[in-house]
Design brief:
The chain is an alpha+beta fold and about 375 residues long. It is about 15% helix and about 35% strand. A 5-stranded antiparallel sheet has the order 1-5-3-4-2, with helices on one face. The chain has a 5-stranded antiparallel sheet with strand order 6-22-8-9-7, covered by helices on one side. The longest helix has 13 residues, at about 1-15. The chain is globular. The relative contact order is 0.19. Residues about 1-20 and about 375-385 have low confidence and may be disordered.
Length: about 375
């Protein structure tokens, strides 16, 4: 027992650059953190669940229901949890689950490289394109090369339905930070971290096309909150099915639209429409602009008191966990909120809408993130501990 303890201390010291003193990367097998759920999502394994918890603004720890769970059909459930104390209220032995903690305190915050593939597991839904490939490796390469693809499912050569054997399903999820709600609010200043990553980086620069005071009726694909027409254009460019968009400034609504056959425009004040760009680098200078009397509501990590909005933006940019912020100036009607700088973030890692068991399929993720994540992710994996 003492020897194991010394080995663990040695591993922690070797990876001292990866973690702060509060960092807890430990997994606890067959241990439940009961109660205090704030949300449940789907994950293929405990590592993915831990990264979801890390990127969620409020999650402090989690319990993951593994594939060997036998009590009911809740396989692949990732329960995100939180308490005022930051630690579980209870711990209980329970077969078929794995629990652990958010990696938010880790320094640097690890970027997920999701290189595993999952046999007999279907990432159900979120398809935008299908093709036939010789094997799952070719399917994963197709996903990795496609900027829109975040994960895939491949039907192998003995799949039950013969007509869809070798079929590769490419799937999409959002990787661009999207404030859950954008509202007009007197005295609030909101904006993005200057280090916020808006999609992939390309060598070729482009400006995109905007049509001011112009609407595009119909063809609705999805309506999302957005801070500006440029933000809306970035969202449309990231979505593989978006062919054009319309941004309404009064409601901060980005309407993504899809019609590959025609685009009909009409004059309308207060609406900016436009076209997406693919395989080039859009101008992202708008990320650095502070938005006066605009509130990015929700997704708070926490807040600190600061003298002005400029300091708030700088502090958000310095914090690896912060993607966007909202600052309450002394023009806000309620003085209890004056000088508060709220740090905010949302989940941007690939996240299947549903994970289920399915014989003779293989699922996995894009490998686009793996090169830049290699150092921190491999350092993390060196000290995963099973209890």
């Amino acid at each position: 027992m003492m020897r194991t303890y010394l080995i663990l201390l040695g591993l922690l010291s070797l990876c001292g650059l990866c973690f702060s003193s509060e960092c807890n990367a430990e997994f606890q097998q067959n241990v439940d953190f009961p109660g205090t759920d704030i949300q449940h999502l789907y994950s293929p394994d405990a590592e993915h669940c831990q990264h979801l918890c890390t990127q969620h603004p409020s999650c402090q720890f989690f319990t993951f229901i593994r594939s060997d769970w036998t009590r009911d059909n809740r396989h692949f459930y990732c329960y995100l949890k939180s308490t005022p104390s930051g630690v579980p209220n209870k711990r209980a032995p329970l077969l078929g689950v794995t629990s652990g903690f958010s990696l938010k305190p880790c320094n640097p915050v690890p970027q997920p490289c999701l290189s595993k593939v999952y046999q007999n597991v279907d990432f159900f839904g979120a398809d935008y394109q299908t093709l036939f490939t010789a094997d799952y490796e070719s399917c994963q390469r197709a996903c990795t090369q496609d900027p829109s693809c975040q994960f895939f499912t491949f039907m192998n050569n003995v799949f039950t339905s013969e007509t869809i054997r070798y079929k590769c399903h490419l799937k999409f999820s959002w990787t661009i930070p999207r404030p859950p709600l954008v509202l007009g609010q007197t005295g609030v200043v909101s904006g993005f971290s200057h280090k916020t990553q808006m999609g992939l980086n390309f060598d070729t620069a482009c400006q995109g096309k905007l049509f001011h005071n112009t609407a595009i009726p119909g063809n609705s694909l999805q309506a999302l909150p957005a801070s500006s027409a440029e933000h809306c254009q970035m969202l449309c460019s990231a979505h593989p099915s978006c062919t054009f968009f319309a941004f309404t400034r009064e409601s901060f609504t980005c309407n993504l639209k899809s019609n590959v056959n025609e685009m009909v425009t009409v004059a309308k004040a207060g609406v900016t429409s436009g076209l997406p760009e693919r395989f080039c680098q859009l101008d992202n200078s708008w990320i650095k602009e502070a938005l006066e009397d605009v509130d990015f509501q929700g997704s708070d990590i926490g807040f600190e008191y600061m003298d002005d909005a400029k300091t708030c933006q700088r502090k958000c940019s310095e914090d690896a966990n912060c993607q966007f912020y909202a600052y309450a100036s002394e023009r806000v009607s309620n003085p209890d909120y004056w000088r508060r700088c709220y740090f905010k973030r949302v989940i941007t890692m690939p996240a299947p809408p549903k994970v289920v068991k399915l014989a003779n399929v293989v699922s996995g993720f894009t490998l686009k993130n793996c090169r830049r994540a290699l150092h921190t992710y491999s350092c993390l994996n060196q000290i995963k501990i099973t209890v």
